[in-house]
Amino acid sequence: MRALVQRVSEASVKINGETVGEIGHGMLVLVCAMDGDTDEKPAKLAAKLSKMRIFKDDEGKMNKSLVDVGGSALIVSQFTLSADTSRGNRPGFSTAARPDEGERLYEMFKDEVAKLGIPTACGRFGADMKVSLINDGPVTIWTEV
């Protein structure tokens, strides 16, 4: 699974003008299940993100995790993270998991994050979503498990 993580002071996702998920201080997680991902990947990614030290401590250093600061997670599916741009001008997405498998792994990931006690909001798999955020820092990190 791949994720693009942004430390945010706030973030929200809308579908057809309706806000379906929003958070304050925390992490916006854009996530993509890849072809061949196993059932162990969602829990592994959730654990990794929950412990990722990207939040400031009292000295202003990135030493605290999402759990440490009591932050929330806004989780949004984004198959375009699988983009292959090595050839031509049009990205290819053949390395993304099939939609049914991608949705299943996305749902597992959301559940795993919530199991860790992190307040969680989300978008809707496969929907046309409008994501708004205020990136705090800015801090943007690419990760893969």
Helix/strand/pairing class, anyone?
Answer: alpha/beta
* Cα-to-Cα separation, first versus last residue: 6 Å
Note the total helix count.
Answer: 3
- Domains, number: 1
SS elements, strand count: 8
Q: Helicity level, as a percent range? A: 10-25%
CATH class: Alpha Beta
Largest sheet: 6 strands, mixed
β-strand percent reads 35-45%
Q: Which spans have pLDDT < 50 for at least 5 consecutive residues? A: none
Architecture (CATH level 2) name? 3-Layer(bba) Sandwich
Q: What do we call the CATH topology?
A: D-tyrosyl-trna(Tyr) Deacylase, Chain: A
- Sketch the topology as an H/E string, one letter per element: EEEHEEHEHEE
Overview of the structural elements:
- The chain has one domain (2-137): D-tyrosyl-trna(Tyr) Deacylase, Chain: A (3-Layer(bba) Sandwich).
- Helix content is 22%, strand content 39%.
- The chain contains three helices and eight strands, in the order βββαββαβαββ.
- It has helices at residues 41-51, 66-69, 99-115, and strands at residues 2-15, 18-23, 26-32, 55-56, 62-64, 72-77, 120-122, 130-144.
- Strands 1, 2, 3, 6, 7 and 8 form a six-stranded mixed beta sheet that branches. It has a two-stranded antiparallel sheet with strand order 4-5.
- α1 crosses α3.
- The longest helix is centred in the C-terminal third of the chain and has 17 residues, at 99-115.
- The chain is globular, with a radius of gyration of 15 Å.
- The N and C termini lie close together (6 Å).
